[in-house]
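Quick question: what would this complex look like in 3D?
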Amino acid sequence: MSVEAIRIVGARQNNLKNLSLDLPLHELIVITGVSGSGKSSLAFDTLYAEGQRRYVESFSAYARQFLERMDKPQVERVEGIPPAIAIDQSNPIKNSRSTVGTMTELTDHIRLLFAKIGQLHCQQCGRPVQRSHASTIVTSLLQQAAGQAVMIGFPYQRTAQQTPEAIRLELQRLGFTRLLVAEQVVRLDAEAPLPDAGTPIEVLVDRIVVQAERRARLLDSLEQGLRFGQGLVVVHFPDGLQQKFSQHLHCPECNITYRDPVPNLFSFNSPLTGPSNPGVAPARATNAACSWPFAPDTVFPPMCPLPGSRPSSGRP
Ligand SMILES: [Zn+2]
């Protein structure tokens, strides 16, 4: 049975007189009392000392010699104590950005943890954002669409200067002969109308039934799509649905690209956590240096001539 409280039995450190009590976990607990009543003896010399002592005990004998040894507190027993952090009351920190995390250097570890094993979710749609590779897309297709005839395409990024004829010639030079317009396959010949400027053109790479035996061809077509689609490939299913895959940290549904997570991205005083970097709103919210919106007329007095200056001419 898990203990939902720290149980102290028979604490006799300093002024404590055989004190026994339960302290619930996950709660903010305040210890009050007159000077000399044993508040610090309970919090620091018993609770923290025992938590720290057990933590140090978990290291090898070799590692222990480099760590500060703490004396065993005078207490009969302490149960259910997790690893502890203590912040001394005498530490005068004047910086408003100082938190429990920065004082204990926990934020450094948490930053590293987030950057290394954090799962990125799109800030707009909440979907997990992952890099797709041709092999992972094939595995996903074999799981969800085995036996279905799918169409594999990629969005061709046209430039404003390209005429429809130039696009046609370029795609034919690359070996593509068909486009996908509103789920319909259109031959890429002189008569085929191209979508309006500004609308991405979707180029058909392959029509194929998803089967394990056709894995090599699926891989080849998806790799081709990712290469010419600048990392983006679209798979169309027979029911009219489509799924986009990206090989970047990019949400294909919302068309938002995310940068690789690095520890500095989770720091509240790093220039990386600016408004131009999406996905880091929680870190930005704690930035004491960030600008707060305010109404200027509530801060600055109304415009009035300075003493001794003449009113500007041309005004009533
Ligand atoms: Zn999204």
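Answer marked as accepted. Helices lie at 39-57, 61-64, 100-103, 106-117, 134-144, 164-174, 215-228, 281-285.
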